[in-house]
Amino acid sequence: MRSGAERRLVTEAWADASNGCAIVLLLSTVLTTGMVGVANAQTPGSSAPVAAPAARSASYSFSIPPQPLAGAISAFSRVTGIDVVGDGGIGRGVGSPGVAGNLTPHQALTRLLAGTGLSYRFTNASTVAIQRPNAGGGIGAAPSGSISLDTIDVQGETAWGPVNGFVASRSATATKTDTPIIEVPQSISVVTQDQMQTRQAQSVNETLNYTPGVLAGSNGNQFNSTGAQIRGFNASPTSGSLYLNGLRSINVGDIDPYALERVEVMRGPASVLYGQNEPGGVIGLVTKRPTERPFHEVRLQGGSFGQRGGGFDFGGPVTEDRSLLYRFTGLMREGGNGIDFSNDRRALLSGAVTWRPTDVTELNAFAMHQRDDSKWNYGLPARGTALPNPNGRIPITRYIGEPAFDYSNTETTAIGYNFQHRATDSLVFRQNLQYSHEIWDYRDVAPVGLQADLRTLDRSASRVRYGWDTFAVDNHAELKATTGVLHHTVLFGVDYRMRKSTQQGTWDGVVGPIDVFAPVYGSPVFMPADNFGSVQTQNLTGIYLQDQIKLERWILTLGGRHDWVDTRTVGIFNNAVNNQNSSAFTKRAGLGYEFDSGMVPYISYSESFVPTSGTTFDGTPFKPTTGIQHEAGIKFQPKDTNLRMTAAVYDLRRQNVTTIDPAHPGFSIQIGEVTSRGFEFEAVASLTSNLNLTAAYAYNDARVTRSNGADLGKRPFRSPPHLASLWADYTIREGALNGLGFGGGIHYVSASVGDALNTFYAPAYTVVDAMIRYDIDNWRFSVNATNLFDTQYVAACFFIDQCNVGRVRTVLGRVSYRW
């Protein structure tokens, strides 16, 4: 099916003179290699075959108040997912009486157009045309003597496409279907491409800085690693929380935001759709897809610490009928990051092709390759950063490794496709497939502990090479059906993932200590031959069923899944073989009620699981670690305002956690539990074409609630109880300063415990960001400052001798040209 949101490339505000209210209308110009007159569009009386309309027999709950026709049609598209096309001026000055009730698309359109003098017709499986009855040549054809206008689309976004502005209205991360966010009974946030561009995000971590419940960059100032905590739990590629285009195929590294259309965060357990997963949530990355309109961008950037680079992004139709589209994106950049002796380099190439052999079949294929060369920054000891040191404060830019010895290089190659075929009006088949090959090759010098003088740091050296080959495929069918008064969207799927991971190296390299206050580099590093390594092959198969049920204003979501996991690990040096099989059944349920105002209160229950390696004293294999969450919240997205607000409370428990076995020292038993309770709030708005706002606050109380160890009752490290952020930017759209935009943001992180026993804390910190830009013709000039006031802070601590430092002030300028 053609992605309507990918065709949305022009945004126009229509003013309603009677009430002074600005309604944002999503428009996209449909072009071939040049501008195609719409007089060639299919006429109503043509005998050419027309695909069956999308879900003509299905009913939807409408609550669209009287308003300008543009806003009413946009609201209709958001509810149904149907694209609406018409010429560029067909709705100007026209009002709609609105529509309310449980109606089919035919019934709703008839009422929306009542009294306007306009009519409609379905042109394919997902598009309806608005036309003047006397248009003669069909939709978009000009009457005799008039000027032919461009064909436009008036529709809501799709869950896999771009978003105009800051406010996304749809997502597939939480349901695998194209569902309005307010109907998802779980907390979800979407960081749009506009947000990433406005803030000049350089990493996935930076895209999440203003997202509630997420401590982004908990690994500190790292270039090639995505590290985050969600609701007090780890959410990183290695924990299985990172998904690319709906599949888990990325195990390490950081995908550059320039390759992405959106970044989505669903908080809470997600195993009912994705299989094994940590309970905090998932981070979904959606790559850029081809565009129907020719699009070209080149850009150059430079800034602090010798940063420099450039990029390009091209897209458009390959054939005149737009059955074949392309997208090609690339960048290269390098420069320092504020840490002594650190220089980061990144190269990215990403391509995508969309092929539509018929109106009901679509294949989106993509491939990407990214290489990062950098050094791993272990941070600094707590004594001198998070805690006092009689020798003074250690400079935040201090490097404690060996510059000539250290490196950390990652390489990621991914290829795959998203296929969709609409068999009937109500039945859609999808297959998502990916293969990825990843390498992480590093050697470094790491901290061991400060000596008694609190300035001499003992160190160790390591050399490790990791490799991952991952194949993932997800097949599912989506059926829309009605049983009596119930309207169903049923999803049935089977997915499979095979991951082969290899690691080999040595941990026990020998290197001399260093004075952290007066470092002298060049200490010899002795590395013995590789002495550890393994090859692990993991096969994961899951079968799942989900039903999204609507009864008038009630929305019920039910889901269940069964997983089978087979793991085989072979030691490289000792040839030891370990086989472990596990299975789990997870489920989810949620109930919401949609009011006319766009407010949806909801409650939900969800589960997760992660296989656990090892056995008890008597040889019994460990059971999977499980997650259970209860959540209640309110979502509010007014139908006539580009605003979304969400508030939620939750109780999240991770169970079957291993803890020491008091009867058998050296062994573990699974009676441990970590409980995370909290509250989250998020508001995202593009109130006019001038003003964007985001605001977020999260409170989290995470504690070890069952344990045989000394950590009982303690908080997990890297889990601050308070996170808050605010961003605003404003663009002048008229007068002498037309095109000038400026804004800034502030995010606050409260103190977090620095180790498992809570013996010390990483202090709270506040960081301020700022931006200014100027658009003129096809040019954009922008400057962004991250950590504007150069606050020296510790992002989080892992133990007493490793506190990861945050990013120092960085100013980045960029010039872009689009045509």
From TrEMBL:
Show the GO cellular component annotation of the record.
cell outer membrane
MF annotations from Gene Ontology = siderophore uptake transmembrane transporter activity; signaling receptor activity
- UniProt entry tagged with the keyword Nucleotide-binding: no
Q: In terms of domain of life, where is this protein from?
A: Bacteria
Q: Which Gene3D superfamilies match?
A: 3.55.50.30, TonB-dependent receptor, beta-barrel domain, TonB-dependent receptor, plug domain
Under the heading CDD domains, the entry gives: ligand_gated_channel
Q: Which SUPFAM superfamilies match?
A: Porins
Q: Which InterPro entries match?
A: Beta-barrel_TonB, Beta-barrel_TonB_sf, Plug_dom, Plug_dom_sf, Secretin/TonB_short_N, TonB-dep_rcpt-like, TonB_sidphr_rcpt
As for subcellular location, the record says: Cell outer membrane
Domain annotation Secretin/TonB short N-terminal: ranges: 82-133
How does this protein lie in the membrane?
Multi-pass membrane protein
Q: Name one GO biological process term.
A: siderophore transport
**Keywords, in A-Z order:** Cell outer membrane, Ion transport, Iron, Iron transport, Membrane, Receptor, Signal, TonB box, Transmembrane, Transmembrane beta strand, Transport
Q: Which Pfam families match?
A: Plug, STN, TonB_dep_Rec_b-barrel
Known PANTHER family for this protein? FERRICHROME IRON RECEPTOR-RELATED, FERRICHROME OUTER MEMBRANE TRANSPORTER_PHAGE RECEPTOR
Q: What is stated as this protein's family in its record?
A: Belongs to the TonB-dependent receptor family.
Report the protein name in the record: TonB-dependent siderophore receptor
Give the species this sequence originates from: Nitrobacter winogradskyi (strain ATCC 25391 / DSM 10237 / CIP 104748 / NCIMB 11846 / Nb-255)
